[in-house]
Amino acid sequence: MTRQEKIRRRKAARRRKIIALIMGLCIIVLLAVAVFLVIKNRSQDAEKKNVQETQSENNDNTHLEDASNDSAEDTANQAETAEPEPAMLELTETQKYTGDLLLVNDQYPYHFEENADSLQLVNIKEAQTVSYAVNKEDMQLALRIMAPLDQMIAACNSALNVTTTGISSAYRSIEYQQSVYDQYVADYGQEYADAYVATPGYSEHHTGLAMDLGIYYEDGSEGSFSESENAVWMEENAYHYGFVRRYKESKVAITGINNEAWHFRYVGIPHATYMNNNDLCLEEYLDLLKTTTTQETPLQIDCETGSYQVFYTNAVSIPQPEGTYEISGNNSDGYIITVSVG
Length: 342
Ligand SMILES: [Zn+2]
What we know:
The chain is α+β, with helices and mostly antiparallel strands. 45% of the residues lie in helices and 18% in strands. The protein is built from ten helices and 13 strands. The strands form four sheets. Strands 4, 5, 6, 7 and 8 form a five-stranded antiparallel beta sheet that branches. Strands 9-10-13-12 form a four-stranded antiparallel beta sheet. It has a two-stranded antiparallel ribbon with strand order 1-11. The chain is rod-shaped and about 165 Å long. Residues 49-76 have low confidence and may be disordered. Zinc ion binds at residues 169, 205, 210, 212, 263. Residues 169, 205, 210, 212, 263 line the site of zinc ion (ZN).
């Protein structure tokens, strides 16, 4: 072996060593990277697992809620199995003859039996919250109209600076109406009685929602309501309290009752407002509702207590209106639904 050869071999051996060293280093680096990646993957997996577990716990909770909702619905459904649709409003025969919009006239008698439970008559003198004269101590009206009546009389007296507005007639039983009618026949004759006094059973005074206003002075004497400034005020302002002047000169042909400045009837503020603003008597208003409205196309009424949608129906089952609503029969063939919409 020459010297040159020895040097070459040594160089070659050194090169192999260097290559082996580099390869060794590479393997170490690769191993390190591999180990790092494995560890990293493991920790990511662990995180994912945690997240999944949390999510699945949440899902479990959701399922629980769903399950409880389902069971609540099931219970509700079970409770309503007798009804065809759970979201329907069922209207009863009694409701056709009760409520604030009853039409009682010479064609449609008042249904005493159907109203026996809901009428709730109270003695006016005992129930009144402001002082005003009442013609007879035992006079009664429906409890639900006492507050608006008190407010209306107080507002009238205050506006005119008087204390004269009072009640001359209120609720009448069928026997009392008979006695009134008989007395008018005896005093003024049949024709006059028929013009001013309703046939017993057909008087709006049976409803407990109507009253005749009078003028009462402090010395106990009575005045003429028709000729009083109180009558003018009432005609202009009664609707603010839910009352309408029921029998006007211009509507005698429709109502069948002569002009009466003193007779007022409670129907509720939205209806009184519409009737007042459009000069409709109760017969005309109910006819308008019956012929032009449905649940899909109600009459929109905006008044001082809010906005209302009003419609007539003769169906005994209708989709439940949204929000708060009131039901009144028309006292003949159907129902008026008044839905508060804001
Ligand atoms: Zn009257």
